[in-house]
Amino acid sequence: MNDLNERKTFALTTPLYYVNDIPHIGSAYTTIVADVMARWQRLQGNSVLLITGTDEHGQKIERTAAAKGLNPQEHCDRIVTSFANLWAKLHIQYDRFSRTTAPRHQAIVNEFFERVWEKGDIYLDRQQGWYCVACEEFKEKRELLDNGCCPIHTNLAAEWRDEENYFFRLSKYQAQLEQIYQEQPNFIQPESRRNEVLNFVNQGLQDFSISRVNVAWGFPIPHDGQHTIYVWFDALLGYVTALLDPEDEPTLENALAKWWPIDLHLIGKDILRFHAIYWPAMLMSAGLPLPKRVFGHGFLTKDGRKMGKSLGNTLDPFDLVDRYGADAVRYYFVKEIELGQDGDFQETRFVNILNADLANDLGNLLNRTLGMVKKYCQNIPPQLTGVDIPNDNRLKNMGINLGVIVEQKYDALQFNQACEEILALIRASNKFIDESAPWSLFKQKQQAAVEKVLYAVLESVRLCAYLLSPIIPTLSSKIYQQLGFVIDFNTFRSEDGENSPDGVSFSKHCQWGLPTNPQLGTPEPIFSKLELPLNDS
Ligand code: MSP
Fold first, then answer.
1. What are 170-218's pLDDT values in tens digits?
2. Which residue puts its alpha carbon closest to atom 5 of ligand 1?
3. Local structure of residue 483 (DSSP, 8 states)
């Protein structure tokens, strides 16, 4: 926990999602991961700004709206509500929702454009090439499949374009970008993504077009009303607009005052070039500091296959949360997939993992331990602290190091490893109960020994619940409440800091050995076993 006056700031972003359709599981995945990181930062007492939002301009959206017979703004307004709904269902604690059609965003885009223009980095030229409307990106002929589609959108042929566009002098920033990648090896993560970027940049950067003449749905280029601004140039700046406080005048100076530079851009691997090459070059041109870290995660597949509407195997995040609950969905994607790697969803596996980890290992552990407190201690938890437990106690040994280990894992975005470390203590606690058999100790009238066992286990469960709270906030809150705390991890904000309702500082909560609360909450199962849908069993 930082001193309240010296609280660190931490700003992070999800991509701003296209509103061509309601959110899919890919958008949910990035947003869950970002929320986990934001919650972790808040637990540590930092001032956090989690930015998400929607990318609403461009040809893809223009065409989608036209196909529905709606004007584009009306279409965007409808779709945006579905994003807000899904984030509420998934308990995403975002601080800003940036929409690129907001009028104040136009002011930021214009001011930024002017800076780059003044720098001499924008010029008019002829653009020829293959354009994937779904990616909103020009592709090299060699990148396209035999059917003329890009590898990501295999059912939509790239279109030939030949038009006058304004270009951004990306090539001018080649050396400066290379220097950044060398000097800040953690700028692009994980390592495999960094290598991808280095290889691409090594081939020589080419200027890219930042205007369109055949797309009406976008902000006009300030110097030439015949063109609209290319959707990606506009969208990346949505991160900047999001930094404005609601009452701020929309100027770059105001936007950049408190939270800039962004600490972490979390994105999928398909949009790495935009974030790790184009975006820093644009910022250099405008004379602004660069974000600190860009992390590109992998792609999700279902039952080992690429997901897609046309393939008929999409995974609906709304349906998944309705059937299994937010914490279950959050836990699976965070624990089962190493961030940065591709990951698979398989429903049987999903159900088995949740039942094993959350219902059995964690849920039963709490339940059986509270049952024994009732039976052997008149429902008064042992009034002990960590110092009362011998140093060679296995749980104490694991517990006192766990906070530090897990902290490193969270900071490095190795959330699956954080889960494994925590699970190890949960499993060790189950084993410890079995081996120390408090029921026999009780029969032998060794009350002090019974109490030590139960204290060590309950304290381990508490610590695990605390450390898992960024991932499964509702379950962790239930555990905390049953252990007699009044902390709700879904409403907790780092601003509560040292003045947390129970008067215990949050920095202490990540240590093993807290005194027990004399009064427990009502014991009840925290996670009911999930059933497989019939056709899957
Ligand atoms: N609008 C741009 C981002 C602009 S940011 C200034 C965009 N939007 S998107 O809606 O198409 O994609 C959003 C995110 O979803 C990307 O990070 C992308 O990687 C992610 N995913 C899309 N499909 C995915 C999977 N199948 N699996 C995991 N994530 C995937 O790109």
1. 999 999 999 999 999 999 999 999 999 999 999 999 999 999 998 999 9
2. 15
3. T
Q: Tell me the whole-structure pTM to 2 decimals.
A: 0.95
- Give residue 66 CA to ligand 1 midpoint distance, Å: 22
| DSSP secondary structure, 101-139, as one string | TSHHHHHHHHHHHHHHHHTT-EEEEEEEEEEETTTTEEE
Q: What atom of ligand 1 comes closest to residue 298's alpha carbon?
A: 28
Instruction: Please choose from 12, 24, 30 the residue to mutate so as to test ligand 1's pocket, defined by most ligand atoms within 8 A of CB.
Output: 30
Distance between CA atoms of 399 and 292, rounded to whole angstroms?
A: 32
Chain segment 298-351, per-residue pLDDT in tens: 999 999 998 877 778 889 999 999 999 999 999 999 999 999 999 999 999 999
Pairwise CA distance, residues 380 & 400, whole Å: 24
CA distance between the termini of the chain:
46
Under a CB-based contact definition with an 8 Å cutoff, are residues 229 and 109 in contact?
yes
Could you tell me if the CB of 30 is within 6 A of ligand 1?
yes
Q: Are 395 and 435 in contact (CB under 8 A)?
A: no
27 lines ligand 1 (CB under 6 A): yes
Q: Which two tokens stand for residue 454?
A: 């139960």
Q: Could you tell me if the CB of 381 is within 6 A of ligand 1?
A: no
The strands making up 159-168's β-sheet, listed across from edge to edge, are 137-139, 122-132, 159-168, 208-209
- Rounded to whole angstroms, the Cα distance separating 100 from 15 reads 12
Instruction: Tell me the pLDDT tens digit for each residue of 56-90.
Output: 999 999 999 999 999 999 999 999 999 999 999 99
Is the distance from the beta carbon of residue 268 to the nearest atom of ligand 1 less than 6 Å? yes
Strand order across the 220-221 sheet: 211-212, 224-229, 220-221
Is the Cα torsion angle 61, 132, 86, 38 positive or negative in sign? negative
CA 94 to chain centre: 10
